């Protein structure tokens, strides 16, 4: 079993905001497999298809770890069997980056997961939402909706991220890094 976890905030007012990139990528995965139905489980929206588990935490970004740890404990997942997809302000829009481990880098959702797993060692797929305009408060920036121009790029990179996440299920991690760790647009 492997789990693909998208981070975001569950309310409709957060749709198409920068902080919901993880939800956007997982939504593309769900549309790719038309027969997957989400249920409410593990403090989130959950689906299972064959050996793939999908989770969208409903705990809001800052408490994402509470949802993730329930899934990990229930399925007795190893940390290397999860992929967390989330936004990254240090990467420009159109950029993807796979990482095996590391600090939270100031991302509260990742901080929560690290705390609940008691480990920094889990796979991540970061989706760029930058550049961050430091004249705007960080919370306001990540909760901001994308511009019309940005949405065109986002739609393309979300589709690439969907393919990358699905490929992660069976691929060598170093291969994924060499293939996807770059700016696409």
Mean pLDDT over the residues: 96
Enter the CATH topology name.
Rossmann fold
Order of helices and strands: EHEEEHEEHEHHHE
Level-2 CATH architecture: 3-Layer(aba) Sandwich
Number of domains: 1
Structural class, please?
Answer: alpha/beta
- Estimate the strand proportion: 15-25%
Number of helices: 6
User: In terms of per-residue confidence, which ranges show pLDDT below 50 for 5 or more consecutive residues?
Assistant: none
Q: How far is it from the N-terminal to the C-terminal residue, by CA?
A: 33 Å
Number of strands: 8
CATH superfamily: Peptidyl-tRNA hydrolase
CATH hierarchy class name? Alpha Beta
Q: Nearest-angstrom radius of gyration?
A: 15 Å
Shape designation: globular
Strand order in space, largest sheet:
2-3-4-1-5-7-6-8
């Amino acid at each position: 079993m492997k789990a693909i976890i998208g981070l975001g905030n569950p309310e409709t007012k957060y749709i198409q905001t920068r902080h919901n990139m993880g939800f956007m990528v997982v939504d593309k995965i769900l549309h790719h497999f038309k027969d997957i139905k989400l249920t409410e489980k593990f403090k989130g929206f959950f689906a299972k298809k064959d050996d793939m588990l999908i989770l969208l935490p409903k705990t809001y970004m800052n408490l994402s770890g509470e949802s993730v740890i329930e899934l990990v404990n229930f399925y007795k997942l190893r940390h290397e069997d999860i992929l967390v997809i989330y936004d990254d302000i240090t990467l420009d829009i159109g950029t993807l980056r796979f990482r095996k481990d590391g600090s939270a880098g100031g991302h509260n959702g990742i901080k929560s997961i690290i705390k609940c797993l008691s480990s920094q060692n889990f796979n991540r797929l970061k989706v760029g939402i930058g550049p961050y305009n430091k004249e705007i408060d960080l919370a306001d920036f990540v909760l901001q909706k994308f511009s019309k121009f940005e949405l065109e790029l986002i739609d393309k990179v979300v589709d690439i991220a969907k393919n990358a996440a699905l490929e992660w299920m069976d691929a060598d991690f170093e291969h994924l890094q060499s293939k996807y760790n770059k700016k696409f647009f």
